[in-house]
Design brief:
Elements (H helix, E strand, L loop, with lengths): L2 H19 L6 E3 L13 E7 L2 E6 L31 H5 L15 E4 L1 H4 L5 H13 L2 H4 L3 E3 L26 H11 L3 E7 L15 H11 L3 E5 L22 H15 L5 E4 L7 H4 L6 E3 L8 H11 L11 E3 L12 H13 L4 E3 L8 H7 L2 H7 L9 E2 L14 E6 L2 E7 L6 E5 L10 E6 L4 E7 L1 E5 L5 E8 L1
Parallel strand pairs: 4-5, 4-11, 5-6, 6-7, 7-8, 8-9, 9-10
Antiparallel strand pairs: 1-3, 2-3, 12-13, 13-14, 14-19, 15-18, 16-17, 16-19
């Protein structure tokens, strides 16, 4: 980008921030270690976004129209030609349209993230311990690549002279670049966290208005992956109830993320880009034009109710999933809370067959052999990482008279190996049957059934197959012609 364009665009953003920050309605109202006010003005509700951040949001479904009226005269990146019927103005008319790098992110990310294990209590030793456990526990051999730091890695203010975000020297005495070098030396990739607002969810510097500087900084440090959160969004950057031209790609939310896409692309370094936008702004409709994956909800929890609710949400938007395009069901909770082994198997299997990113989120040293066997299952990971078929498994009706359930219990999908069937037992009845003729891609006749969990053939069956699936467990099969 030309320097003049950079300065002009930056001045526009600065004006937006000054106006927005004067409006307290969108301010923080709660969260871990929050000492400020906890009430909101009339018509606004203090809404929990995650344990560290609650924000005042309008209690009505219609948000104020906040599209800025001032815009730069020079585009920040190549833009598409507007149609004759386009009504785009302001920032929406000149926002970057460049897409994410396709040098990375073809299949869903496999890795680890610090948040579910440690929250803000992170440091260099914990990050490097996870990286070394990728090697010692066989996770790298199974295909896991990314070691990702989440929130709270920086100091609270930017460097006064350079404007850069600075690592907390008490937590990261070798700096972020030093940690990245050690992660890379193990043959792994390194990820970091920022926010598409003025501050992160825990109150550290965000990247809105500093996209080019921060992307350049991250590239210089050797960052390979960016998780980009959605807290502390100024009022002038929130969305109207209807986006410009009726396309959420033109919404303020999308533009906040598009700006970082362009900034990362300009560095020349391929970043895998995760849009942590909590399922807002119909992100599944435009996410692939901006990043590689996008969050479908708020933060995960180590609970069966979260697992079933996010499956229910995700199956409504399976058309969005393909190569370089992944609905993110959030980080793994295997090893956390009180999930049963059956529920942990479903947690992993559902993320695998719906092709969500799989980012482990626990102290890896505490995993037992059963849990390690779940997360390194070669056949489920092969389906997840298949490079010939990018689409996920989809719900199907197992027999003509089968009832409809929410979430669905029967799914089928294809890979380089053939047709797969997955059965999620969300109820109490453990006997499950599916007719081969009802499985998409199959037909009536005899088929061989192979158990993906055990890696063993079950046998050859005619017409249908009946199996036992424990409560809250998931069965996984490869079904091929006899």
């Amino acid at each position: 980008m030309a320097a003049a364009s950079t300065l002009l665009y930056g001045s526009v953003l600065a004006g937006l921030f000054t106006s927005a920050l004067a409006q307290s309605e969108y301010g923080q109202c709660g969260g871990v270690n929050w000492t400020g006010g906890t009430t909101c003005p009339d018509g606004w509700v203090c809404t929990s976004m995650n344990p560290y951040y609650s924000q005042c949001l309008e209690s009505t479904s219609t948000a104020p129209s906040t599209t800025p009226t001032t815009s730069p005269t020079t585009s920040t990146a190549p833009t598409t030609t507007a149609s004759s019927t386009s009504t785009l103005t302001g920032i929406a008319a000149s926002a970057p349209t460049i897409g994410p790098s396709h040098d990375v992110g073809k299949t869903p990310a496999l890795g680890w993230n610090s948040w579910n294990a440690y929250g803000c209590n992170i440091n260099e030793d914990k990050i490097l311990a996870a990286a070394n456990q990728f090697i010692s526990l066989g996770l790298a051999k199974a295909g896991y690549q990314y070691i990702n730091i989440d929130d709270c890695w920086s100091v609270m203010t930017r460097n006064a002279s350079t404007g850069r975000i600075m690592p907390d020297p008490a937590k990261f005495p070798d700096g972020i670049s030093g940690v990245a070098k050690q992660v890379h030396a193990l043959g792994l990739k390194f990820g970091i966290y920022s926010d598409a607002g003025t501050a992160t969810c825990a109150g550290f510097p965000g990247s809105l208005g500093n996209e080019e500087l921060d992307a350049t900084t991250f590239a210089e440090w050797g960052v390979d992956y960016l998780k980009y959160d959605n807290c502390n969004v100024p009022a002038n950057w929130t969305d109207a109830s209807t986006p410009p031209d009726g396309d959420w790609y033109n919404s303020n939310s999308a533009i906040r993320y598009r700006q970082m896409t362009a900034a990362m692309n300009a560095t020349g370094r391929p970043f895998q880009f995760n849009l942590c936008i909590w399922g807002n702004a119909n992100v599944w409709d435009w996410g692939a034009r901006v990043g590689h994956s996008w969050r479908m909800s708020g933060d995960s929890s180590a609970s069966w109710s979260y697992i079933t609710s996010i499956i229910t949400t995700n199956v409504q938007h399976l058309d969005s999933i393909d190569f370089y395009s992944h609905n993110d069901m959030d980080m793994m909770e295997i090893g956390n809370g009180d999930l049963t082994i059956q529920e942990q198997r479903t947690h992993f299997a559902a993320w695998a067959f719906l092709k969500s990113p799989i980012l482990l989120g626990t102290d890896l040293g505490q995993l037992n052999t059963t849990q390690l066997a779940i997360i390194t299952n070669a056949e489920l990971l092969a389906f997840h990482q298949d490079t010939t078929v990018g689409t996920p498994a989809r719900p199907f009706t197992p027999a003509p008279s089968a009832p409809t359930t929410s979430p669905p219990q029967f799914y089928s999908g294809t890979s380089a190996k053939g047709t797969h069937v997955f059965i999620v037992n969300t109820g109490n009845a453990t006997s499950k049957t599916f007719d081969f003729a009802n499985v998409p891609g199959l037909g009536s006749g005899s088929y061989k059934v192979h158990d993906m969990w055990t890696g063993k053939d079950v046998g050859t069956f005619a017409t249908s197959y009946t199996t036992t699936v424990d409560t809250h467990d998931t069965a996984a099969f490869l079904v091929t012609a006899a």
